[in-house]
């Protein structure tokens, strides 16, 4: 019978849809902008899958929003190891991990982003513990290779994996990230289950995109409102369209006019017209077009838009498939299928969303 420690960062990912690109040091601002927690529901999805595949699992967790609520909602009767304060912090995550290690859990299943992964990895290092770790992706920035590709996959892997191996924990400076600069740093190495459905670490480079950009600009339709996602590839398109876009945010543009720069979800919805297109580029090494670093492109936004996927030949050759993780299972299912990905001025490659 598997013993699993579950810890939830309740505020993980709250900054995404309101354009903050992270929640570190910005929780109150996120709430002021109308952000709502997304981690609890993603935790429940993962644990419900765990319950399906391994119903005899013993779960240890912290009280309240840090795990108990999601675990009990999924049908388990957990053993509580820690009582956090009403407003929990990274210190409470670390203390919960210490309790997990003392209980001898087989796996730490956490719900959060790279910051949460760092807190857990550093605590394990302090304890000289090699407990395997698996992340349920809920944060805005996911650079570490310790996460499953979706909450349901995390639950499946937690229930079925048979061995683990060392993987990297990465994190970036959120203040620099909000200012448009990526400063990624290797923070730790932890044991992670070996399984299909585990995402790779994010790659920070891509191939030549000049001809891709030329082809896109030639095809621009003045009657369409373009919702341009983050990243260097789409950033080159923004530059070619004649404006200084947000490199790590979402910009809305139509017929020569920048309607919104670094837009939040509601600002995007307000700016949409009768005909709209989202332009996104998959994350190198992972293939995600929605759900990683662009939570402003919410299900409500996606449902009102057509989708253009662009990417360098090198990136497309590397990833093999596209992935989505919008937080809306029905929409994720609708988005599955084949896409024509623009890789050059005229050339397109067929890539399947899985």
Characterise the protein shown here.
With 354 residues, the chain is α/β, with parallel strands linked by helices. 32% of the residues lie in helices and 24% in strands. Helix 5 links the parallel strand 4 and strand 5. The protein is elongated. The model is unreliable at 15-21 and 203-207 (pLDDT under 50).
Secondary-structure map:
Elements: E1 3-8, H1 27-32, H2 39-53, E2 58-62, H3 68-73, E3 79-82, H4 90-103, E4 107-112, H5 114-127, E5 133-137, H6 151-160, E6 164-172, H7 174-178, E7 184-193, H8 210-218, E8 225-228, H9 232-240, E9 251-254, E10 257-260, H10 265-271, E11 276-280, E12 288-290, H11 299-302, E13 306-310, H12 313-319, E14 323-324, H13 329-335, E15 337-342, E16 348-353
Parallel strand pairs: 1-2, 1-4, 2-3, 4-5, 8-11, 11-13, 12-14, 13-15
Antiparallel strand pairs: 6-7, 8-9, 9-10, 15-16
Compute the separation of the termini in Å.
Answer: 31 Å
**Shape label:** elongated
Q: Tell me the helix content.
A: 25-40%
- Report the structural category: alpha/beta
Q: From N to C, what is the helix and strand string?
A: EHHEHEHEHEHEHEHEHEEHEEHEHEHEE
Unreliable spans are 15-21, 203-207
Q: How many strands appear in the DSSP assignment? A: 16
pLDDT averaged residue by residue = 86
Strand order in the sheet with the most strands: 10-9-8-11-13-15-16
């Amino acid at each position: 019978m598997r013993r699993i420690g579950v810890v939830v960062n309740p505020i993980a990912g709250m900054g995404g849809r309101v354009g903050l690109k992270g929640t570190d040091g910005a929780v109150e601002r996120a709430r002021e902008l109308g952000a709502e927690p997304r981690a609890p529901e993603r935790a429940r999805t993962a644990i419900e899958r765990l319950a399906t595949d391994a119903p005899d699992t013993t779960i240890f967790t912290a009280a309240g929003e840090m795990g108990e609520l999601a675990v009990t909602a999924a049908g388990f009767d957990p053993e509580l190891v820690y009582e956090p304060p009403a407003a929990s912090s990274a210190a409470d995550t670390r203390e919960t991990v210490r309790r997990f290690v003392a209980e001898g859990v087989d796996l730490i299943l956490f719900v959060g982003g790279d910051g949460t992964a760092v807190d857990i990895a550093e605590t394990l290092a302090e304890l000289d513990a090699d407990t395997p770790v698996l992340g349920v992706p809920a944060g805005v920035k996911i650079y570490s290779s310790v996460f499953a590709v979706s909450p349901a996959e995390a639950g499946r892997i937690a229930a079925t994996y048979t061995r683990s191996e060392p993987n990297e924990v990465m994190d970036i400076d959120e203040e620099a990230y909000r200012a448009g600069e990526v400063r990624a740093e290797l923070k730790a190495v932890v044991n992670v289950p070996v399984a299909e459905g585990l995402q790779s670490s994010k790659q920070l480079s891509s191939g030549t995109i000049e001809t891709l950009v030329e082809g896109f600009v030639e095809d621009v339709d003045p009657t369409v409102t373009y919702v341009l996602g983050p990243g260097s590839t789409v950033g080159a398109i923004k530059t070619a369209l004649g404006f200084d876009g947000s490199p790590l945010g979402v910009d809305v543009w139509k017929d020569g006019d920048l309607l919104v720069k670094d837009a939040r979800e509601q600002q995007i919805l307000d700016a949409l017209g009768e005909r709209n297109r989202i332009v996104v580029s998959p994350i190198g090494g992972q293939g995600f077009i929605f759900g990683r670093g662009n939570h402003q492109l919410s299900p409500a936004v996606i449902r009102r838009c057509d989708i253009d996927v662009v990417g360098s030949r090198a990136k497309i050759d590397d990833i093999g498939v596209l992935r989505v993780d919008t937080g809306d299972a029905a929409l994720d299912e609708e988005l599955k299928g084949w896409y024509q990905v623009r890789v050059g001025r005229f050339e397109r490659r067929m890539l399947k969303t899985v």
